[in-house]
Design a protein that fits this description.
Elements: H1 3-13, H2 16-46, H3 50-86, H4 90-117, H5 119-125, H6 133-145, H7 147-162, H8 166-190, H9 195-218, H10 235-267, H11 271-307, H12 311-347, H13 351-367, H14 371-383, H15 387-400, H16 402-413, H17 415-450
Helix pairs in contact: 2-3, 2-8, 2-9, 2-11, 2-12, 3-4, 3-6, 3-7, 3-10, 3-11, 4-7, 5-6, 6-9, 7-8, 7-9, 8-9, 10-11, 10-15, 10-16, 11-12, 11-13, 11-14, 12-13, 12-14, 13-17, 14-15, 14-17, 15-17, 16-17
């Protein structure tokens, strides 16, 4: 068998626990490395002061926008690629991959140009105060220069996972992340570049990740092959990519909007509150990336088997991932709740920041076991091409529920309202996900019997 047939056999015949875990573990590792280098930025920058630490939270919103575009293109292409490969339609998979890659480069270049033209008003729009603004601008300008490579590498990363090449994706992202962690203290302190040094380290690491990931395609180590001739001239191809990527765009885009709203409300209680919520956000992302990574390892399994009309394996993979994900999140939530003060003190010595951050992190830990269902449900709908269902569910957590709550709760509970908005939003998202996923599998069972 050629590599395409071998991969099809693997994705449709390998026992579900072994298959999902083999794809999830590299994905979790790459996401942990990404979160660790984000935390490394936060840790080293926090040594420069509270305002500098708060600036990382402001620019994190910008990075979320870049990721929103990249993930929309990468997962929009990738989820369709999985189904096409499950249908053994490699020609369409190549067209989607080539078109998605070029689209990612174009959007990243547009972000570079327009972001630098409007950088100061953009930072203010993202929630920067006057004291934070100089740090935010110095950090953001280098992140924007790396935007084309960031969008391309995130897109390539997701397309590699979509065809079941999670190990390749892990190596590309992992190399960049490790280099970032090494360069951070060198540029910030040794070369005395301050917060700009952290941004330069991130930009270099993103460029290197892009090079490593792209080399896999150039060397022919992938099933999907890029070609100038395969770049689609049909508008429908790009509509398919953006339709299937819409849930990822909303997930990442609303994360940026939610962070901005959080920064604005936290700013009412000073730079300490902004810094605390920024640190909590980075810590939580480290924990959250475990379940997201497991979900992204699960997605290509669903896509392949749904495309191959093997609905029994679709259901089996969902139940396995839900069980494992909930168990992992419960253990991490317990650890996070107990160690919250120590975790905050690792980043900063400001007692007011530690106090605010400890409370916020503990509130979040209380609801973390419930989050698995929302994440896996959303990823299921995206993997099978039900983009409207996926978009609605992904919009709940940091949009439909979060945005009204961040306006209402601080007016009632003041700073505590800022701290509890995300946990309450997560509980509501869990409740809403139940009828959606129940109906999907009920219909899937009926289709399976009909087959």
């Amino acid at each position: 068998m050629d590599s395409k047939d071998t991969q099809f056999e693997k994705m449709t015949k390998t026992p579900i626990p072994q298959l999902v875990s083999s794809l999830a573990v590299p994905t979790i590792i790459s996401m942990l490395i990404t979160s660790l280098y984000n935390m490394a930025d936060t840790y080293f920058v926090s040594q420069l002061g509270t305002s500098a630490s708060a600036a990382t939270g402001i620019v994190f919103s910008l990075m979320a926008i870049i990721q929103a575009v990249a993930f929309a293109i990468g997962i929009g292409s990738g989820s369709t690629i999985s189904r096409k490969l499950g249908q053994q339609n490699k020609e369409d998979a190549d067209i989607l991959g080539s078109s998605g890659f070029v689209t990612a480069l174009i959007f990243g270049s547009a972000l570079l140009i327009f972001g630098n033209i409007f950088i100061k008003p953009l930072m203010i729009l993202l929630g920067s105060t006057e004291t934070i603004l100089p740090y935010a601008v110095n950090y953001a300008k280098y992140i924007l220069f790396a935007a084309p490579f960031m969008t391309a590498s995130f897109a390539l990363n997701n397309m590699l996972r979509a065809e079941g090449k999670a190990n390749f994706a892990m190596v590309g992202i992992g190399i960049g992340g490790i280099i970032n962690i090494i360069l951070d203290p060198i540029f910030i302190f040794h070369f005395n570049l301050g917060i700009s040094g952290a941004a330069i380290a991130t930009a270099i690491s993103q460029f290197l990740s892009f090079i490593v990931l792209f080399l896999y395609y150039l060397k022919g180590k992938t099933i999907v092959r890029f070609s100038i001739n395969k770049i689609s001239k049909e508008i429908n191809t790009y509509l398919i990519i953006f339709k299937n990527g819409m849930p990822s765009f909303f997930r990442q885009g609303l994360a940026s909007v939610a962070t901005v709203a959080l920064n604005f409300n936290a700013a009412n209680y000073g730079d300490s509150a902004v810094a605390a919520m920024s640190i909590v956000g980075r810590v939580f992302m480290l924990i959250f990336c475990v379940i997201v990574g497991y979900g992204q390892g699960y997605q290509p399994v669903v896509g392949y088997n749904y495309g191959a009309k093997n609905f029994t394996r679709v259901k089996e993979s969902f139940l396995f991932t839900l069980k494992i994900g909930t168990t992992i999140m419960t253990v991490l939530a317990l650890m996070g709740y107990i160690l919250s003060p120590q975790i905050m003190s690792w980043f900063i010595s400001d007692l007011s920041v530690i106090e605010i951050g400890t409370r916020a992190l503990r509130y979040q830990c209380l609801v973390m076991p419930l989050m698995t269902l929302g994440v896996i449900s959303n990823m299921t709908f995206q993997a099978v091409g039900k983009s409207l269902h996926a978009t609605f569910l992904t919009s709940c957590r940091q949009g439909i529920f979060f945005l009204p709550l961040i306006i209402i709760l601080p007016k009632i509970f003041y700073l505590k309202g800022v701290e509890i908005t995300q946990p309450i939003s997560d509980v509501l998202t869990f409740i809403v996900s139940i009828p959606f996923i129940y109906k999907f599998f009920k219909n899937l069972n009926n289709n399976n019997r009909a087959e």
